[in-house]
Fold this sequence. Notes:
By secondary structure, the chain is an alpha/beta fold. The chain is 43% helix and 16% strand. It has helices at residues 18-27, 43-53, 87-115, 121-125, 136-145, 152-159, 175-184, 200-207, 224-237, 266-281; strands at 3-7, 32-35, 59-70, 73-80, 188-191, 214-219, 240-244. Strand 5, helix 8 and strand 6 (214-219) form a beta-alpha-beta unit. Helix 1 crosses helix 2. The two termini are 28 Å apart.
Amino acid sequence: MKVDLHIHTTYSDGAFSPQMIVDTALDCNLNVIALTDHDNILSYSIANDYALANDKKLEIIQGVEINTIYKDYEVHILGYFMDVNNSDFQSMLKFQQNARNYQAREMVALLNKKEGIRIKFDDIKKLVAPHGSIGRPHIARAITNAGGTGSVMEAYEKYINDNSPVYVKRKTVSPHDACEVIYDAGGIPVFAHPIDVEISESLAKELMNYGLRGIEAYHRKHSPAVVEYYSSLAEKYGLIITGGSDFHAPSGNHGTIVMGKNFVPSWVYDELIKEKKRIEIS
């Protein structure tokens, strides 16, 4: 069984539509995927309906990736199998979407005022699927499209960083809140690509008090030694292990990424399902 539990679509900062993700996953001989758009869950039903209508033999898991900021660290919390109709979960998504839109609008105003880059909020909004999550990649692309920079990478270097006079930091829920809401909605909260967070071990231990149930040990950023480290950490604290490609696009700002390329053992899926059943009966 071939598994990829971390994939993005055009409903956040991915380049492929949900339908394209399904077709690409099958081309990569994947059996199970999870759609984990940032602060958004709209792609799942579209992908699932497409797969069913066209007799595509692919298991699609409902997922999400909640972007949080904690002590100046960007901490991402993955969620799997939550009840997406849960009122607290819906409120969290709404809060996150409002924060994303506010950030984009404020940056548009500053880009116009301080840099003379004439873009509108709608220029950013049209770069993401309807009701999708606006993020830094969309802002960078809008700047480049308006001629403000010669490339998206240059836009990142000049404007999409904490030291830029036009960058506005997003106000998010905490990773603690994200874990708690996902867990209370019947889902499985997982610490995503922990290599990005220097305090990952102490934070993971802390988040367990709020429902954290897993660590993403298998990730394209993780070397074999890092995979071993986080696998050992998961075992130490009784957490499950997950993994995925964190697929956004075949190439671009995220580098060359192939869906399902990085090895994720099939038992990772088995443990995820066991944890789902454990939560259901608890």
